[in-house]
Amino acid sequence: MKSQKNIVLFGFMGAGKSAVAAALGKRLGLPVVEMDAIIEEREGISISRIFSEKGEGYFRIRERELVRELSGKAGLIIATGGGVVLDPDNIRDLGETGLLICLRARPPVIMKRVEEETHRPLLEVPDRPAVIRQKLEARRPFYDRIDHQIDTSDLTVAEVTDRIIDIYRGGTGSR
Length: 175
Ligand code: S3P
Known about the structure:
By secondary structure, this protein is of the alpha/beta class. The protein is built from eight helices and five strands. The protein has a five-stranded parallel beta sheet. Helix 1 crosses helix 8 and helix 4 (about 55-70) packs parallel to helix 5 (about 90-95).
């Protein structure tokens, strides 16, 4: 029997990966895997503490290991962390067993969505809007490499979910 593809969500912080992954899991009856949550659980500390106590490099190694592990599985909804795209090997591995979707949003929309949140070490900076703009720009070529692109700025979670299910079931619906 052919195994069921994973659905892998990429995108910048605040693009909607977690909300859409949860909705997809419910709609399709598939387990949802939050990469950051697994890393936190295994390390026994928050992502912020991993960054401050062990460094971003350490976090990226743990992230890479988890990608390799998840790429060997099937039938999962995987919400990646916003930086997983930075390593092309991650995209290659996840693409072997998964449908790859990148969620996008305009910078002001991202800013609004992350406004009240404090759990992202890369955004705990004095000038958050400037850092968001700068990182979005620097990462654009990496996000652009993902097969399917959905701009979530003006869509509800349900609408984004519908589009992804359409692609998953063989429709088109993106790019
Ligand atoms: C990161 C995004 C975060 C988390 C870590 C680094 C990034 O995940 O993995 O703080 O480099 O963009 P979310 O995109 O789920 O916030």
